[in-house]
Amino acid sequence: MRDEYDSSKASKNPYVSQLKKKITIRLDEESINYFKSIAEGIGIPYQSRINLYLHDCATSHRKLSLRWK
Q1: How far is the C-alpha of 36 from the C-alpha of 33, rounded, in Å?
Q2: What pLDDT digit, counting tens, does each position of 12-66 carry?
Q3: Does the residue 10 lie in any domain?
């Protein structure tokens, strides 16, 4: 490995607009445990699994049917 690298000719990442954004979200423990158990079985980190699920809901325009008591 080199001691120094020349980055003067480096270009910007063309995929920067597709990068993930860090947020804080509050989830109940039961939901986290559910995604963790699924993630362990398929070898994908549970945060990635949650992201994939939410992305699928967003792209298919799935809406939650919810009624308050």
Answers
A1: 5
A2: 877 776 788 889 999 999 999 999 999 888 889 999 999 999 999 999 999 888 8
A3: no
